[in-house]
User: Fold these one by one.
Assistant:
Number 1:
Amino acid sequence: MRKTLTAIIALTLAFSAAAQEKTYPQPEPMRPGMTEFWTPQPKIVTPGDILTNSAPSDAVVLFDGRNLNAWQSANGGEAKWTVHDGVFTVNKSAGDIITKESFGSFQLHLEWCVPTNITGTSQARGNSGVYLQDKYEIQILDCYNNETYANGQTGSVYKQVIPLANAMRKPGEWNVYDIIYSAPVFNEDGTYKVAPTVTVIQNGIVLLNNFTIRGTTEYIGHPKVVPHGDGPIRLQSHGDKSEPISFRNIWLRKM
Ligand code: MG
């Protein structure tokens, strides 16, 4: 009798514990709309006309064939490179030029052409360059049938990386650069918290794929990490004696 009573009490306790076990709401079953976002809608940007080489509707136009109003000499004063026939040509005696406006991250489009009478070899042949935020040079050089050190050829972050391809068009033809650049973020001690990165496409061919820039592009010595904010685009007037190259159709989209 006592054994039966004990069993009944044990069973009763077990049932009551089960009855007290809490239940919680379960996640709703997933429906397609739960992973579809409708806002914000990407802004509408009207592409440029590919036949007339015009800029997209939201671009900062840095050169449209008419004047160098968006530029100044890197030494101060007017940009004294030569505008003619819808293009402008490096004036080596006038030094580098920089944009008047400064930029953070951007997409940059520019076209450049090596003259057909180009002379010189290696780095002394159609050398120029486009500096991102005035710090990091993407090399511009006539590398058509012209070998040089590989980490200094066209499309390199100068002396930091060998481009994935040599996509040069021959002298007299226009080369097209599309450069996608993410500006760095700095720690308080001046080191990179997030290093700058760059993708370079020349004539539709990827030369650099999201390359992490190591610092300034030095001719002598290693890259330096120098804290900076927004900066201008700089075009290089290189000291070599070869015939100067020309530029056209330059625009930039801020990101
Ligand atoms: Mg250069």
Number 2:
Amino acid sequence: MQRFQYYIDGEFLEGEARFQSIDPATGDVWAEMPEAREADVDRAVDAAEKALYEGPWAKMTATQRGKLLYRLADLVAANARKLAELETLDTGKIIRETSAQVAYVADYYRYYAGIADKIEGSYLPIDKPDMDVWLRREPVGVVAMVVPWNSQLFLSAVKIGPALAAGCTMVVKASEDGPAPLLEFARLVHEAGFPAGVVNIITGFGPSCGAVLGRHPKVAHIAFTGGPETARHVIRNSAENLASTSLELGGKSPFIVFADADLESAANAQVAGIFAATGQSCVAGSRLIVEASVKDAFLSILKRKAEAIRIGSPLDMATEVGPLATKRQQDHVAALLEKSIASGARLITGGQKPDGVGYYFPPTILDCDGINSPSLAEEFFGPVLSIVSFESEAEALRLANDTRYGLASGVFTQNLTRAHRLMKGIRAGVVWVNTYRAVSPIAPFGGFGLSGHGREGGLAAALDYTRTKTIWLRTSDDPIPDPFVMR
Ligand code: NAD
């Protein structure tokens, strides 16, 4: 059995306790993980604070920080295969996707390496003749980063990259479900030569580790990705330390198909949107909103594609849908599906948890036309698509916005003016037109409403890890005048 360690203050440690990690493809224990509790969280945050104010990191130029980030990017690229295999083993995400995603993670670090020395302050045209006033951009402080199980290397890169570019130090908490890839990534941070304490990577459970980290008095900002219910705990805990928060949460994203769309292409995008990553994707296009006149035609293409999907071992390059990450997740998907069918939703394909080992669930399609199905409102975070149809553009938009989430959306149409109307009307942080599930380090990403606040990606994300300091310098040699009048 493999044993992992976590990384605090430049050292690899066994942890206060240990827990077992399960291979979702077999249900067997395959590794032992270190578990951080209060003492190790304290140790990690102390190390991050020390690194922020003392030692080499505090004195480094932005260009030197960028060089370290470039080195890290190269190491991620060079070790992509190993990282991808660990992510696949520990979370069940298929190797076809983890290998492509980890290779792209290197580009995220490269992008933020380039940004490090482009974060500028400013000089203010102040309204007083004898004053020079500047804004300095300084790192926001020690950042707590908490990520969920899916795509941990990616979801941490969109936090670690900009935070390092901005000069912050951090404690990253890997999910207790599948922490192996992030714990291995810590070795690359070490090899890249970041000073001790700048990046600390631990894992542990929500209440005994994540919550302790989030409310720690030395934490200035919490960058969280996960579910809305956990986000509420994060916000409540931030009432203790008054840390700022950025929240990347779930979604119930609409995928709108008009009759004039290229149906074959839209169906491929819909498959990517709901069945890739076994549906465990925050941007899953889980509500198909299709024009009534092409509903049957589109459904038959989709059904054919869904039933042709190769389900199998996540380590096999040919596999297209692997297991869900945990038994808990498999039970959740099955229970929500049962509730939806009980409400009247009609099963078009899939739906049966297969016999045998592993936490598999087949690609599933539900027709929810005319039904108030829970599947239209609640997040499965699994491979289940719910379908409704519309007669008019106005109805399509109303259905798209009929959710408290607002992360992503897709619009498939050949009509340019309609596409423009919808991209303005949809209430979501991302609108994909005639494409779906495209991401880039250059493009900001984040949600509205229950999908959270704050943006990851792009230059703005690096600025979000800074705070401004206003410097006033008096340029007059005359004595300070009347001290009882504010100047
Ligand atoms: P989760 O909210 O249960 O857990 C996320 C992380 O929070 C884990 O590391 C967990 O240990 C930690 N945590 C739990 N309780 C905590 C507490 N009280 N304080 C601090 N941390 C705590 O999420 P999950 O079930 O692991 O992941 C699935 C959810 O994540 C889905 O809702 C999904 O949509 C969302 N997600 C969002 C994005 C995005 O970028 N918007 C990306 C991926 C996943």
